[in-house]
Design a protein that fits this description.
alpha+beta, 3-stranded antiparallel beta sheet, 4 helices
Length: 144
């Protein structure tokens, strides 16, 4: 069976065969069921060796992944929120896609919006200078 590629952006998609899923016993709520059923999913995606992802995107995703990225360049995502294995599997895959989508586009450069101290000083100096010019235009004061 050939699985459909997972779309990240319009131009980037990953092959589901690149994703390796391992099912492990989950923690948390579930009573005795937790001890019997492997419902948690450990998803592994080899980011460094993925042929479908461009290099600049790999660098951005690696920075975003943080501690989820191993030294070998593999992203590891553990999903054990749900008691049901298919729900955990979908959750892990959704988190991987969200991470890849976030790294797909370069961040917008920050535009400085606050005036610098030097520009504030220049503005106040210009106002003081202009004030002095206008005061010089008045009638001469007679000092007693």
């Amino acid at each position: 069976m050939v699985a459909d590629p997972i779309a990240i952006t319009r131009s980037v998609s990953i092959d589901p065969n690149e994703i390796e899923e391992t099912f492990v016993r989950g923690t948390g709520a579930g009573g005795q069921n937790v001890n019997k059923v492997a419902s948690a999913v450990q998803l592994r995606f080899d980011l460094q060796n993925s042929p479908n992802i461009p290099e600049p995107m790999k660098r951005r995703v690696a920075a975003l992944a943080g501690s989820r990225l191993t030294k070998d360049g593999v992203i590891v995502i553990l999903a054990n929120i749900h008691r049901d294995q298919p729900l955990n599997r979908a959750e892990a895959q959704a988190r991987l896609v969200a991470l890849l989508r976030e790294g797909a586009y370069p961040p917008k450069p920050r535009i400085a919006t606050r005036p610098t101290l030097a520009s504030k000083t220049r503005r106040l100096d210009a106002k003081t200078n202009r004030s002095g010019i206008k005061q010089g235009r008045g009638r001469p004061r007679v000092d007693e």
